[in-house]
């Protein structure tokens, strides 16, 4: 039943059209560079290529390649969440880089994330009060049973 409904959506909305597939491929490729800090991607790829004969590296590269190929074939929205199963092998491969490359990349990624976080916070003032509470950290209140 779900597969039939999915096939109906594919045909009705042309989700498997070549234009949608090319857009999906482009977005997935762009999102894949942000699994680790983008400056580490070329060095990680070079190191993985150098160690491609090792069984664990071969397994991680196969995991990334097979999943990315399947994501290109199956998905149609190009969302970054589709690449989450690739995050572990990419991070493992990136962790093999020298610390002198990892430390600055980690600091830069943290700085970018902190800057983006501070940019989001002023927007909370424009939200209705009930949505502001939901957007912040979860409260420590306990719910009362029967009362």
How much helicity do the residues have? 55-70%
- Low-pLDDT parts are none
* Count of discrete alpha- or pi-helical segments spanning 4 or more residues: 7
| Fraction in beta strands | under 5%
Cα distance spanning the termini: 44 Å
What Rg is obtained from the alpha carbons, in whole angstroms?
21 Å
Averaging pLDDT over every residue, what do you get?
79
- Sheet with the most strands? none
Strands, count: 0
Category by helix and strand content? mainly alpha
Shape: globular
In sequence order, what are the helices and strands, one letter per element?
A: HHHHHHH
Characterization of the model:
The mean pLDDT is 79. This protein is 67% helix and 0% strand. It has a domain at 2-98. The longest helix is centred in the C-terminal third of the chain and has 22 residues, at 99-120. It is globular and about 50 Å long. Helix 2 packs antiparallel against helix 4 (55-74) and helix 4 (55-74) packs antiparallel against helix 5. It has helices spanning 2-13, 18-32, 40-50, 55-74, 84-94, 99-120, 129-135. The chain is an all-alpha fold. The protein contains 7 helices and no strands.
Brief description of this entry?
The protein is mainly alpha-helical and 147 residues long. The chain has helices at residues 2-13, 18-32, 40-50, 55-74, 84-94, 99-120, 129-135. α2 packs antiparallel against α4 (55-74) and α4 (55-74) runs antiparallel to α5.
């Amino acid at each position: 039943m779900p597969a039939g409904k999915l096939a109906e959506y594919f045909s009705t909305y042309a989700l498997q059209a070549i234009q949608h597939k090319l857009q999906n491929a482009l977005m997935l490729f762009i999102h894949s560079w942000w699994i680790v800090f983008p400056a580490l991607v070329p060095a990680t790829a070079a190191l993985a290529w150098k160690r491609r004969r090792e069984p664990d590296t071969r397994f991680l590269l196969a995991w990334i390649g097979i999943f990315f190929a399947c994501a290109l074939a199956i998905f149609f929205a190009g969302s970054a969440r589709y690449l989450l199963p690739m995050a572990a092998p990419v991070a493992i491969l990136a962790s093999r880089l020298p610390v002198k490359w990892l430390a600055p990349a980690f600091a830069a990624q943290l700085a970018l994330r902190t800057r983006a976080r501070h940019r989001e916070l002023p927007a909370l003032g424009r939200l209705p009060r009930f949505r502001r509470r939901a957007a912040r950290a979860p409260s420590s209140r306990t719910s009362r049973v029967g009362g």
